Amino acid sequence: MLKDKFFIIIFPLFIIPVVCWAANMDSIKVDFLEGNYLRVIFEAQAQVDHLNIVGADELNYILGLSYLKELKLEQAQDCFKRISGGLSGKFKQQAELGLADTYLIGGRFQEAEVIYNKLISDAPDSSQKAAILYRLSQLEFKKGNNQQSNDYLSKLRREFPLSPELRLNRGLVFRDKPAASIADTGEYSVQVGFFFQQH
Q1: Most buried residue among 23, 69, 96, 137 by CB atoms closer than 10 A?
Q2: What is the pTM of this model?
Q3: Do 182 and 142 meet the contact criterion of CB atoms below 8 Å apart?
């Protein structure tokens, strides 16, 4: 009987934080989708700093994307590395793509290219392949390799003719542009989110 009472008292102590965390995570996702990146950074960074939670990968992923949107590349890299450094996880590939994007935007083209190519070689049928081909095209364009850029775009059109990457109109802001003068007529993209809704 005493054991049952102890369980009844202790059980809510574990349930209440989980319920509060789930509600807070939903709030962070809504803020992210509404473009409130600074609010996401404030809320999510506090969670990452003070809690060791089951949803840490998802939280770090959203936080990394928010830092990326604010062009805080080093902070974004830290978030993505926390995820990609793990052995597995449903956000591992997305985090590696996000990490490569930080390198692409920061002008660290060689590091970005290595990750993009590794993602394709590790999972040739990945749902991210169209996005990666597009980024590789833009990477080559920024390096001044127009022929290679066109080759990636041709492959993208051939393999993914209906991909949204082919219809993008908005560009990415690049922090450090290459020394060579290249006309910015290409298109760029960064994945804005990849979430799982649990009921």
Answers
A1: 137
A2: 0.72
A3: yes
